[in-house]
Amino acid sequence: RKEVEQDPGPFNVPEGATVAFNCTYSNSASQSFFWYRQDCRKEPKLLMSVYSSGNEDGRFTAQLNRASQYISLLIRDSKLSDSATYLCVVKSTGRRALTFGSGTRLQVQP
Amino acid sequence: DGGITQSPKYLFRKEGQNVTLSCEQNLNHDAMYWYRQDPGQGLRLIYYSQIVNDFQKGDIAEGYSVSREKKESFPLTVTSAQKNPTAFYLCASSIDSSYSEPQHFGDGTRLSIL
Predict the structure, then answer these.
(1) How many Cα atoms are found within 13 Å in the side-chain-facing hemisphere of A60?
(2) Residue A67: which residues within 8 A CB-CB, separation 6 or more?
(3) Distance from CA of A86 to the nearest CA of B (A)
(4) Does residue A83 sit at the B interface (CB-CB below 8 Å)?
(5) Would you call B99 an interface residue with chain A, using a CB distance cutoff of 8 Å?
(6) pLDDT tens digits, residue range A55-88?
(7) Nearest CA in chain A to B10
(8) For residue B113, what pLDDT is reported?
(9) Which residue of B has its CA nearest to A43?
(10) What are the chain B neighbours of A34 within 8 Å (beta carbons)?
(11) CB proximity list for A53: less than 8 A, separation 6 or greater
(12) CA-to-CA distance for B57 and B49, rounded, in angstroms?
């Protein structure tokens, strides 16, 4: 079983739609959680950290459920520029580097 | 501007050849990392370094080597022992390897076999 699992998609949504991605992690010792965005053939860029109480940044909302070991990302009012792959990323006790999911691809259509 | 610079952007390797990928950062970060990404897959950790003159193997270190002689530099050598080197290689750095510090990436090197 992969340490971080995501639905690869693609999620095809119209502009203005709300879309949500989930990610599950297997290591209960995971301490820090992030969402990264990766455009085609580019490097990943930090989108937002995920805090225990949930957090929002403009149209983006991240939630963490430690009991069920999953993280979610909600995007409201989707824009064409939101089209990208969204990587769920976890930092676990005993690991000095991040563990990446394979990503969920989002395609926002006009 | 502060950041991470990887070079070259594209690299071709001949059979039996070692090639070295450069990674330089001017962020004054202690920790540096190398990842490999294959199409449709997540990033996998090759090597990381928490401090100068120290580095540790990641999950897929076989066929690769690194050095960390200076804080700002962490070159990766893909040796001839790496039989499937074609991938997107990403270098990253963070202030340190503490739990909450996310990593920032260079713009990557694409390596292919000739």
Answers:
(1) 17
(2) none
(3) 11
(4) no
(5) yes
(6) 999 999 999 999 999 999 999 999 999 999 999 9
(7) A41
(8) 86
(9) B107
(10) 102
(11) none
(12) 9
Query: Could you give the C-alpha distances from A97 to A20, A77, A92, B49, in angstroms and in order?
Result: 26, 33, 8, 10
Q: Is the pLDDT of residue A94 over 80?
A: no
Rounded Cα gap, residues A28 and B49, in angstroms? 25
Written in H, E and C, the secondary structure of chain B is: CCCEEEECCEEEECCCCCEEEEEEECCCCCEEEEEEECCCCCEEEEEEEEECCEEEECCCCCCEEECCCECCECCEEECCCCCCCCEEEEEEEECCCCCCCCCEECCCEEEEEC
Q: Is A31 on the interface with B (CB under 8 A)?
A: yes
With an 8 Å Cβ cutoff, are A100 and B43 in contact? Answer: yes
Chain A contact present for B105, CB below 8 A:
yes
- B26-83 pLDDT, tens digit each: 999 999 999 999 988 889 999 999 999 999 999 999 999 999 999 999 999 999 888 8
